[in-house]
Amino acid sequence: MTVQAAAEAAGEYACPLVEITGGEPLLQKDTPALAGALIRSGKTVLVETNGTLPVTALPEEAIRIMDIKCPGSGASEKTDWSNIRHLRQTDNVKFVLTGRPDYDWAGRIISQYRLADRAAVLLSPVEPALTCADLAAWILADHLPVRLQPQLHKWIWPDEQKGR
User: Fold this and answer.
1) What angle do CA 75, 52, 99 make, to 5 degrees?
2) Residue 49 — φ and ψ, nearest 5°?
3) Where are the beta strands (DSSP E) in the chain?
4) How confident is the prediction for the chain on average, in pLDDT?
């Protein structure tokens, strides 16, 4: 599908917001062009990236949702830390946490890079290893300047519906 065809397909919906996600969208060379076409058509565009590739490839108007991989993911060493200096108040930084060690690590990163001053910070628990209730309690106890974000795709599409 061409960039133009994808933008036109998105235009068929009366939704003013489009999120480009799935694996790592910046691995697709046409993602910045698609984001730009959607923006020019009047859509608000969010791009959810795993934080391993330069976010500067995206149009300035795109809202970046940048994942910072925690040690529990097994991929934390792949983070492109230079992306942090390109974050804006309209962007989001997301940490997906598998347990207390990831939470403590994320807290240190949030503080070290002053992430809450740069962008909205989201913490998502990997259930059942870490429950929303436990994560919420830790956030409240530590007064972290973050939002709790359950992994909604797991609530909306349970395991038996994946791949349909």
Assistant:
1) 35
2) -115, 150
3) 17-20, 44-49, 63-67, 92-97, 120-125, 147-148
4) 92
Which secondary-structure segment (H or E) carries 86?
none
* Whether 86 contacts 80, CB under 8 Å: no
The residues, ordered by sequence, that sit 6+ positions from 120 with a Cβ below 8 Å of its Cβ are 91, 92, 93, 147
82 token code pair: 């230079």
Entry pTM = 0.88
Cβ–Cβ < 8 Å for 146, 125: no
**Residue type at position 153:** H
pLDDT at 155: 67
Integer-rounded Cα radius of gyration of the chain? 17
Give the span between the Cα atoms of 66 and 132, in whole angstroms: 21
CA distance linking residue 4 with residue 6, whole number of Å: 5
